[in-house]
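Please check this:
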Amino acid sequence: MAKIMQTLCSGIMVFGVMQMAWAETAAPVAAQKPYVVKSPNGDRVDPYYWLRDDKRQAPEVLSYLNAENKYYQDYAAKYAELNKQLSAEIIGRVKQDDSAVPAIKGDYSYYSRFETGKQYPIYARKPKAGGAEQIMLDVNKMAEGKDFYQVSNYQVSPNQQLLAYAEDTTGRRNYTLKIRDLRTGQDLPDTLTGMDASLAWSADSQSLFYIEKDKQTLLGNKVKRHQLGQDNSKDELLYEEKDTSFYMGVGNSGDDQYVVIWLGSTVSNEMLVLKSDDKSGKFQTVAQRQRDFKYDIEHIGNRWVIRTDWDAPNYRLMTVADDQIGDRARWQELLAHNPKVFIESFQLFKDYIAVNVRNDGLNKVQVMPWADLNKASYIDSGEAAYVAYTNVNYQQDTEWLRYSYTSLTTPSSIYEMNMRTGEKRLLKEQEVLGGFDKNNYQTERVWATATDGTKIPVSLLYKKGLKKDGTAPLYQYAYGSYGSSSSPSFKAPVLSLVDRGFVYAIAHIRGGQEMGRHWYEDGKLLKKINTFTDFIAVTDYLVAEKYAAKDKVFAMGGSAGGLLMGAIANMAPEKYRGILAHVPFVDVVTTMLDESIPLTTNEFDEWGNPKQKAFYDYMLSYSPYDQVKKQAYPAMLVTTGLHDSQVQYFEPAKWVAKLRTHKTDKNPLLFRTNMEAGHGGKSGRFSRLNEIADEYAFVLSLLAQP
């Protein structure tokens, strides 16, 4: 029988929780079928390899995944009312009929908007001169009857009469490209399947440049040109990438004068360009690829501006004339390398250049006039930890720069600043409902000391009035791979924990790029373990400084951050009350030995190639699946998507199966597979928020237990 409870647990009030009696049922036990994983550096026996089914159809595999889902659902039933309450609370903060700030391009202002109760956005435009709204894509209608649906990219043609878009109906990021006639609202017969989401238009709006994927690895490797109305079999192959360690993208330059092919690996890349009005020419290379040399480009007037790490680990800006590309010896420096400032990207204007940088680990915007690049100035901020970044700026011939600003306490805000006068205009601040008042919260920047003495920045959010007496629960997040930096931006859902007394922490650990290129270099390949020990050091610091209770620490990470979760679960299980691992990359060695799996060959420079003994031994030493041992583990919630093409579902499935046979504790180990989704989870905005509510309910239910 259910009963209404109010549970006070060390300062955490869980109101209106419907606690259901839950009879402990036996957890699913996967069969063990020894399989030898061969490698040049030694063979390993994997008893759960059979859980891999590339077609996602094997009855035995689906039966096991469904059994795990049932086990999860039975456990979660005991806090179903709390889950429902949290879901209503989190969704209740969302202004459901919200819209983005329109951005002008050509004769129209473009924007997206949501309608009350609808899961998906509507992409629309209005004539700049005034007139009625034109709906280009109503994703709600397009998603009807589909378990998963996402429009991942769209581009309007130069004549603004056509719209090309990429749709995904499985979550595997294997896209179908379609073209909509904006004059009629109908799709043209032209349909391209098995594609990447990136695309570009020719100047005459009659040709579409796209990337075809390899059917096995799902890596984009061919750039083709499709003439509208032409049979797909006649599409012209313009470029084919033979090196499977390179990713690929295609798009138009900011001024639409060029089509640009981007080719990139972890440590090198190459850019190829073609005038968008050239119907017969070939792509030209801006600078030949070379190991440990990276660059990206943007065009204005008759020259290219280049961001490069050539003799500049934190990048510098250079330029070259259109007729001098191909030889980087002709590049001229615009903005010199600064060992304390990492250049992330830039946007070009007729009289100014805006540069996104990281300084002291924070995102900042630097503005410089072309007339005197020494007159650089930062857009100011009054908060300790924040994110400022250039926003959509379609027009180059303007003095007004649009940028976004946010922090852990400030909802996402869009500003315009006049780069000549410094005048600012707030165009919109994200409206947060449910009684939110940013003055009730405090953000702080602290520094934890790693095992080797390195200072690790940590961004904190908590309710004002928090007593640092070592009793608060902690929810600690990090990613720490690929040089991807975790920014202290506003996240409305986490308020449901902070309002219940939690301290929310983002650990800016090595493997990201928060403190510059060296931060990334010190957290990959044969230094990867720094990522894991940094995270643990942050936990130790926050407990020692009495921000948190040592028995109320929860850790969360996803994808490569899920690898982090798996590593700390093996290395320091006693430090965490609960661990939440979403789509976790946990079977490092086996995956990196298998070049048929999407992403593997692209990532040898991130993790190492296990066919080389030094990397094999090092990767094996931290691979979460391989390092599972007989010991007590914290409570764990592991999630995946059956159709995930980035981290295949069988990695967490195998990991959980092995954990069940090795863990010596009685803490819950839950595994939830979304049978209709991929790497990003469910596609609707409310569905995703419901998944967050599931996670938070799990966390709060653990705190409510003695």
Q: What stands out?
A: Residues 104-145 form one domain. The longest strand covers residues 186-201.
